[in-house]
Specification:
This protein is an all-alpha fold and about 150 residues long. It has helices spanning about 1-80, 85-95, 95-105, 110-120, 125-145. It has 5 helices and no strands. The chain is rod-shaped.
């Protein structure tokens, strides 16, 4: 009978140990499940935010495209409104190497004095080239505004 009781106690202890082991494993799996759920929720939030940013960028790009198309239409209208004489003058101006250099340096932000010294041109010639370009640009804009 003592042997039976001893075996029963050992079996009960083994059974209790198995229950504790299963309880710890279940708790560990439960914690892992919660962690996975939280990670999934965070991932879904990040995905929603990325989608929102994608929509914003798409809308911004669409607006920029519309602006670009409008500007292109205005430029085409201004170009068409130039008289034949102005077109000849405008086309001949960039062919001059001096004029090209003056316009390039002016577009880079150099002053009239700096351009004059850098290209060894009289100040008046630099002013004339820039004035002519400005006049032709303004003339093209004012003509296109009259048409609209």
């Amino acid at each position: 009978m003592t042997l039976a009781w001893t075996l029963q106690i050992l079996l009960d202890l083994l059974f209790v140990a198995a229950i504790f082991w299963l309880a710890r494993r279940t708790a560990s799996l439960s914690h892992l499940s919660r962690t996975l759920r939280e990670t999934l929720e965070n991932f879904q939030k990040m995905l929603q935010e990325a989608n929102l940013w994608g929509e914003r960028i798409s809308l911004h790009l669409h607006n920029e495209q519309v602006k670009s198309e409008k500007t292109l239409e205005e430029l085409n209208a201004a170009h068409k409104s130039l008289t034949e004489e102005e077109r000849k003058l405008l086309v001949s101006l960039p062919e001059s190497e001096k004029s090209q250099k003056v316009l390039l340096l002016h577009n880079q932000g150099l002053s009239i004095e700096e351009i004059s010294k850098g290209l060894s041109l009289p100040r008046g010639e630099v002013e004339l080239v820039l004035s002519l370009v400005t006049f032709l640009q303004n003339r093209g804009r004012s003509d296109s505004l009259k048409e609209t």
